[in-house]
Amino acid sequence: MKKTLALAGLIGLTAACGGPAATSKAPAPAKLTLVTQTAKAAGPLESATWLLDEEPGTLDLDSDGGTDNRTIMANVCERLMQTQPDMTVKPWLAEKIDQSDPKTMVLDLRAGATFHDGSPITADDVVWSLKRHAGEGMDESDEFEDVESVTKTGERQVTIAFKKPNALFEQAIAGGAGIVLNREVVERLGKEYGTPESPDACSGPYRLKEWKSGTHITIERHDAYWNKNVKPLTRTVTFKWADDTALVNSLVTGAADGAYLSETGPAVALQANKAVTVAYGPTTRVFVLLPTDRGPLKDPRIRRALSLAVDRAGIARSGFAGVARPWKVPVGAGAWSYEKQAFQAAYDQLQGAPETPRIEEAKKLVQEAGTPQAPIIVASNGEQARTVIANAVVDAAKKIGLVAQIKTVPPSEYGGFYTDKAMRAQVDLVPDDWYITKSDPIGFYDNGLTGSSNNWVGYSSPDYDKLVASALAATDPVQRAKDVIELQRRFTADMVWISLVEVPNAVVLGGKVTGPPASQVQIGYPWAADLGVKG
Q1: Structural domains of the chain ordered from first start
Q2: What is the arithmetic mean of pLDDT over 341-361?
Q3: Contact 332/284 with Cβ under 8 angstroms?
Q4: I want to staple 108 with a disulfide (CB 3.0 to 4.6 A). Which of 96, 313, 463, 505 is the partner?
Q5: Across-strand partners of 159?
Q6: What is the pTM of this model?
């Protein structure tokens, strides 16, 4: 998918959230160290128990590509390209990709790759799989909007023709859009495919062993796996589901061996416990403020002023107990999978989103805008992170001559801001977190396009729109980086969204295991193949 919205709130277990001053009184956190991979495993493991937030409703990722579903099936189903722990992508089931013509992509398939039933992966399977993903209502269908045709052009070759150049498609086929399925198995199973009674139809280092609805899902090492260079150490991985409290208890007692965390609360509770290891990795996830066009935030000078005045370092301390870092742009550094030095240099030069407030600069902007008297209404759902952010906005507004108030919305209704204009008409700012599934920032910046469904403030720039099109068409990474860096500059200059803090990916491991990536790749990389016993 082009973008994924994470609506789950983060819970900072150690921070106060009672009022505006909370962001300035919390203790300073230790500096986070980000790693792409946990320590390499030293030996084999018979079985491991891994925790998820909830039980999947289906394992057919075309029907539901949720995080828990993907975390399991990333070990079972393979893609034409594969995202690596360092967030780069490389050829996988496609041995080679040729895109000398920006509107044509030629995939040469790897010889010898087989499905779990032993049948070879053919060009026909690839064509059929891509067309299935592109089908109406399928989870990855938006990735195929620019695709004109998908055809078999050789015994092991598939050619994709585009209506217009699409530089992101290579990233897309490292995700759910590039999964290759065994056509014969899926068609034979029909509606049963993806249910507890059905086998998988894939080719990865693990195969689906058992799904006992309501209790667990187990995958087992596929000893006839076609890629002999991949040697998983763990024989079986059993997935169970638990809320935060049960997750923490299970990991501390050894009842579970690991989990990728969707919330920071368990990480904060576990990071000082010697029975487990918590590792943090690169991410694309950022907490932001989404402005609407109903009040003072219509004026970009007011948006810039708030950005200068809000205490990002305080938010990181109080809202996330230090498990976050102040951040200037709306997409995390995990998206910098190419031209990283160029992106870092451009990021360092940005001035509008400081770690600590620049109040006098902000006051001048407010005065230039006529010091509007209408109160700024900030949404919150009552959860820790959003409450701290909302309080920080109230505090910042007061210091620069504005008035802000908090409107609390039930957590179950918070997602309605994205679909219900009437809800948005009641507020001026919505704090929320976003991540993109691709490691390329251009996967985010279409949110600033004229008329974008997530461009609530009504930002409109023909030059910006042209630049998005140019970046999406730039198959040369150097040129694409230049375009994206300019988009980043324009987006942050007008504060279409106000970026606050970057939240890292987190994996927690029990005392006996190690090996899987810490970076945000567990939804597309076969992480269980790296899992094993500590040395």
Answers
A1: 4-31+283-439 (3.10.105.10), 33-76+204-282+505-535 (3.40.190.10), 77-190 (3.90.76.10)
A2: 97
A3: yes
A4: 96
A5: 106, 151
A6: 0.88
Reduced to 3 states (helix: H, G, I; strand: E, B; else coil), residue 2 is: coil
Burial class (CB in 10 A: 0-12, 13-18, 19+), 270: buried
Q: How much is the pLDDT for 29?
A: 40
Q: Which of 485, 10, 25 is CA-nearest to residue 287?
A: 10
Measured distance CA(284)–CA(438) in Å, rounded: 8
What pLDDT, on the 0 to 100 scale, is given for residue 144?
A: 97
**pLDDT tens for residues 175-228?**
999 999 999 999 999 999 999 999 999 999 999 999 999 999 999 999 999 999
8 Å CB contact between 513 and 533: yes
CB atoms within 10 A of CB 322: 22
| CA-wise closest residue to 437 among 168, 197, 128 | 168
pLDDT for 272 equals 86
In angstroms, the Cα distances linking 99 to 229, 474, 477 are: 28, 11, 13
In whole angstroms, what is the distance from residue 261 CA to residue 505 CA?
Answer: 7
Token pair recorded at residue 259: 């989990």
pLDDT at res. 11: 30
pLDDT over 50 at 5, yes or no: no
Query: Per the structure block, which two tokens stand in for 139?
Result: 């989870």
- Confidence band for 22, pLDDT divided at 50, 70 and 90: very low
Cα dihedral 421, 467, 431, 366 in deg (nearest 10): -100
Structural element, H or E, at residue 259: strand 258-260
CA distances from 31 to 34, 261, 270, 509 (A): 10, 19, 17, 21
Closest CA to 168 of 146, 149, 138, 135: 146
Task: Give the mean pLDDT of 54-73.
Answer: 96
Contact call for residues 205 and 222 (beta carbons, < 8 A):
yes
Q: Which residue has the tokens 């909007």?
A: 145
For position 189, what pLDDT does the model report?
A: 97
User: Encoding tokens for residue 466?
Assistant: 């042209």
User: What integer best gives the mean pLDDT of the chain?
Assistant: 92
Structure tokens given for 341: 């030095």
